[in-house]
Each structure stands twice: as C-alpha cells, then as structure tokens.
Amino acid sequence: MTQPLPRSSREIRLVRQPHALPVPDDLAVFDVPLRALGAGEILVRNRYFLVFPGLRTLMGDETDGVPLPPLHAGDTLFGPAVGEVAAVGEGAAVELGDLVVHLEGWREFAVLGADGYAPAGGALPDPVAHLSTGSAAYGALTRLAPVRDGDTVFVSGAAGATGAMAGQIARLLGAGRVVGSTGSAAKAARLRKEFGFDAVVVRGTGPFTTLLAEAAPDGIDVVVDMVGGEQLTAAVAIARSGARIALLGALAGQLAADRAGGSSPAEIDSYRLVVRGITMRGYRGVDHPSVPAEWERQFGRWLREGTIRFPYEVVPGIDRAPSVLQEMIAGRHFGTVVVAP
Ligand SMILES: NC(=O)c1ccc[n+]([C@@H]2O[C@H](COP(=O)([O-])OP(=O)(O)OC[C@H]3O[C@@H](n4cnc5c(N)ncnc54)[C@H](OP(=O)(O)O)[C@@H]3O)[C@@H](O)[C@H]2O)c1
Hints:
Elements: E1 8-14, E2 27-33, E3 42-50, H1 54-59, E4 81-88, E5 99-102, E6 109-112, E7 117-119, H2 134-144, E8 152-155, H3 163-172, E9 177-182, H4 185-195, E10 199-202, H5 208-215, E11 220-225, H6 229-238, E12 239-247, H7 251-254, H8 270-276, E13 279-282, H9 291-305, E14 312-316, H10 321-329, E15 336-340
Parallel strand pairs: 8-9, 8-11, 9-10, 11-12, 12-13, 14-15
Antiparallel strand pairs: 1-2, 3-4, 3-6, 3-15, 4-5, 5-7
Helix pairs in contact: 2-3, 2-9, 5-6
The structure holds NADP nicotinamide-adenine-dinucleotide phosphate.
Residues 52-54, 133, 136, 157, 159-163, 182-184, 187, 226-227, 248-252, 254-256, 283-285, 328-329, 331 line the site of NADP nicotinamide-adenine-dinucleotide phosphate (NAP).
C-alpha cells in the first residue's frame, strides 16, 4: 500500500547567529509546505542525518575557504543524510523505497533533483554506515600518512566520529601501537576495551606533551590529527624521523567558545620537521576522488567480516536535533551521532 504523502515537512533553521558555541535556542523547528515534484525530482523521507562539528564553523564568522556554504539566520541547516524515496517525479532514475544519500539533512523530507542525490547501493550492511566520516580517516591513512607494519599511530579526537574509525583502520593497515586522545576517562576506557587502542590520553589531565610521551615512549610514526592546538604541538615534539602527519580537523579551535570556529592556531617546532624529515599535510576529500568508492568497498567488507566496529548513537525525533548539536559539541556522545527524524 502506498503511504499518503505529507503536505509539509519539519526542518531545523538557524534563527540567530550563535553568540559563542551554538545553543538549542539558536535553532528552531519549522513546519514548511512541500512543493509538487518537477520532472526528474524525487521526494525523500530522511531516515537519519548527521550531527557534525563543521556546522559550528558554518554558523560562525570565519568561513573563508570552507568548502560548504555559510549558514545565516533564517537558513535551514544541511548535511549528510540517508533516506528512502517516498515519491518520484516523471523520469526519475530511482524507485519508491530505494535508499539514497544526499546533503539535505536536518529535515524530515527533502525534494531533490537528479544531481542532488546518489543511490545508496548495497556495499554497506547498515544504512547509518553511509553517514560515517571514516572515509576521511581511510584516505588520510592510505594517501597522506601511509601506515607501515609496526608503526606507532596517534589519533587525536579518537572517540569522535572520525577518530574511532581512524584508530581501527590504522590497526587493520598494520599499525603496531595505536594511541588516542579523548575528553574523558570513560571514553578512554571504551577506546581501549572495545576499539583496540593501546593507550589513550585524556586531555586536560596534565601537560599534553608529557602525557603523550608516556603513552608513546618510542615516539610516533603516523599522526591523524582531528584536534590541533596543544595536541599537534605534542605530536610534532615526539614524532620520529620520517613521521607522516595528516591534518583532518582542528577541533581545539573549531569548538572553542572564545573563537569563531574557522581557525585554530598551534605552536609547532618547525625545526623538528626539518631535522626529522617529517611531512605534514591537510586532508581534503576533493584532492582524493578515488577514496570514497574504495573506502565504501573496504568498509563494507570489514563490517561484514566483523573486523571493524562502527560506533554510533541514534537520537530519535527532529525536535531533539537542536539539543543534540550542543551535546555533540560538549562531547556527550561517542562516535558518530545521527538524528532519526
Ligand atoms: N578533512 C576532512 O575531510 C574531514 C572529514 C571529516 C571530519 N573532519 C574534521 O575532523 C574533525 C573531527 O570530526 P568528527 O566529525 O569526527 O567530529 P567529532 O570528533 O565526533 O566531534 C565531536 C567531539 O569533539 C570533541 N571535542 C569537543 N571540544 C573539543 C576541544 N575543545 N578539543 C578537542 N576535542 C573536542 C569531543 O570529544 P571528546 O569528548 O573525546 O573530547 C566531541 O565528542 C573536525 O574538525 C571535522 O571538521 C575533516
């Protein structure tokens, strides 16, 4: 039986630019009418959308060079989503019930043109896996900072969406010792027990360079950096000869209440880079177009074999979405965070 289609869809809009970090009152739920589909368009019922730190940057004053459009008061939030085709316009290339991935999250329903979505395909056994940011970790560890057998790998922000995947991928690619960092002892314990980390530094519990040197007494060969700041300073300080540092994010600046979200200064001893022949490069998906398809095949295989775990938390109800953004920034969740509207 075909489900009756709704006349309207609820969505989350930014109602004012956040003063510091976003709070739930900066966002609101709006009920908006759904328009008729044009030729080739589809209506998608979103099943899950991703809650991610880049939104803080897009809402701030420092969006120069950021590869997504800034968010102003009145705009609907957006981001990776996975949903089911609920209606098709004339000539659309998918069928009712097909699963598609797209960038119009933060709403119950999305009207999408042919270039606005991709069929989910069958490579991944779990629809939420399409929202994993593990592709960036995999790209960093295969393109920018390749892991060699026995390497010591440091993953900063290891309990986050990307970090929890990065540590496991590093191990699967041959790392001998995997060290992480996180914001709480409870998350550190989970990383060690459930995700194979050998040691985890809890930020804020002492001088970071000292703590990292204790966790990696022989130094570090590969860094996947999600955080920047003092953690990057420390990683450079103890990096071994020939170390490879991949910069994926900069949570220390991006999620700092006293910054605008688009910058993250760190002090680095550049002479260490010279004398130890260390490479350091930022990871941008656009520079590595072959990664997503390769990652999807590999991720699907690892999930089916049970050699990788994909930690995520599903928060039901679009009404909860404004609070979940704040919770994600405050570190109250583990791994990937999605809303099921
Ligand atoms: N280059 C790329 O292609 C690419 C792709 C994906 C993501 N990224 C970037 O990579 C970074 C991680 O992204 P993600 O989606 O995996 O996010 P995430 O790590 O899941 O972000 C949420 C986590 O940030 C941590 N956090 C909050 N405030 C912090 C602070 N002041 N210092 C350090 N950590 C803090 C908290 O973890 P704890 O409780 O453990 O501290 C929180 O759980 C972001 O900068 C993101 O923009 C880049």
